[in-house]
Write a structure and sequence with these properties.
heterodimer, A: 334 residues, alpha/beta, Rossmann fold, Alpha-Beta Plaits, six-stranded mixed β-sheet, 34% helix, B: mainly alpha, 74% helix, globular, nucleotide-binding (chain A), ATP-binding (chain A), nodulation (chain A)
Amino acid sequence: MHTAIQVENLTRVFNRRGTAPFYALRGVSFDVSYGEIFGLLGPNGAGKTTTIKIMSTLLLPTSGRVTVAGFDVEKDYTHVRPLISLISGGETSGYGILTVEEQLWMFSQFYGMETPVARARIEEYLKVVSMWDSRRQQMNRLSTGMRQKVNLVRGLVTDPKVLFLDEPTLGVDVEASVIIRSIVRDWVREKPERSVILTTHYMAEADELCSRVAIINHGLILANAAPAQLKQDLDSRAHYEITVDRLDGKQLDLITAFMEEGNDFVLGVDKVTNSPMLVAHLMHESDIARLITALAGQGATLEYMRKLEPTLEDAFLKMVGRRFEDEEEVSPIS
Amino acid sequence: MKGFLASMYIGLQIESNWTKKWVWLLYLAAYPIGSFLTVIILYGVFGQKTGLLPYALYGTIFYYSLSMVFFDMAFSVHDDREHYQTLKYIFLSSTSYRTYLCGRAATRYLIALAGIFINLCWLVPVLRLPFHPNWGYLIAGATLGYLVAAGLGLAVASVFLLTIKLDVDVVDALFGGIFVLSGALFPPTAFPAVFAKIAEFVPLSPFIELMRRAISGKILTSFLSDMSTFQLLGRVALSAAVLFALGSLLVSFGSRQAQRKGYIDVTTAF
């Protein structure tokens, strides 16, 4: 079977006493293939974690259907659970009095693993995350980043088919984040029958890791495509930033007249060199050659040039109307 | 089975890993004293004439062994959900939550029984307690008693799965009531007839009386004296089967409802 996860018309409503029902999800549909890292992007309260909770059998949907590896998460959850792992970021889960090794072994036993197999995998993954030397350290003595690495190893030791990563690098330092991302990427590449569902606050992380992302807001999927596609859909024009030794307004008017209609130019000053800086929004990628010829015709010498690429953040901003940082935490339960 | 043993292991680590081994062994021996010290003062010092010291002491220590099981099960829910934040990961594993709770509580039970054994080594000679153990009844009773307590513990755990705020007072009141009615501390025959009759049907009553007889070799009061030791064992077995089945059903129901409400991984500021 090619499809790892199928989400069909998923709705989840939280009824709270004395307040109106909270619609966390409103008819969400998507699917995830094996071998894919699928990202769910959205501000806090958008419905990402609710979706992950339902897919991982922690929460029941109000309506709609989710299958993981062909099993219905609502009816066949006992078949789903041995096939999945969940790793949540930004929490301090774990038995503090256990050592790293004990903690990981204990969870492997909850999945019925043979101890020699479990121990071998624990050693392998602890070495990958550079924590083999800390294996006899108690969990409560570990830093946040180290705890999250142990959390990741716990999720991988059981060799799940589907890995749910809910903000896995939240509150983790840059070095640990890089390691976690690298492991996740390699883990999926290793076997084609694996897949990862990732929610993250970090757009660059989603851009780097995900083969496809769904942008979710107010419980609705606004877009579902490859990051490159989402960025391309944002704006088909090519954008350049060009610093030259000299250029004034009159010369720019001449250049604008020389170029085809629809190309926009903004003249400013490079904050570092104080040289004139031209930001060009070109209708076609190929227009850059014509622009450089025009600049040369005005006697301007190129000092620096770079292409401005739209980011996933720009795509998100366009669809949702605000940036991630503008959001406040919303909890539907507490 | 692996899940059960791993749960026993975490139970042992939570109980013992906070200090050095010798300190913990000392604690293991000293901890149960708190449960029966009052009884010794009450019946051994002030109420010597009643002759109820062996009855109350054996009753209290065996009640204590079961209380370790149901208190552990009840509080594990909040411990794992709020403090360790591992409840969701246990739920998502291949081990059923019932098995996990039973494993953790089994360790608590064995630790409690070890503490009782250590203390009986000095209590019996010092207080001249009747001691003619029937090991067959003791082992069978202890095993069935665990299932009785586990059934009660699972039932309370199912309620705790559906409550966000931990209400210790309710649990204390519930098990305090059972303590009084089960005849652990004094014979329920001292109650008005109606309550004495109710006491006979409290699930812990036959267990405690069975263990008293199994360890002392005597029928110490008239409470449940019309039943033979074998009949008591049958009553305990029946209670164990019914309560454990009921507790299992309730914890399955509670888990499903918690899944519906989104309570499995909820954390609060409590």
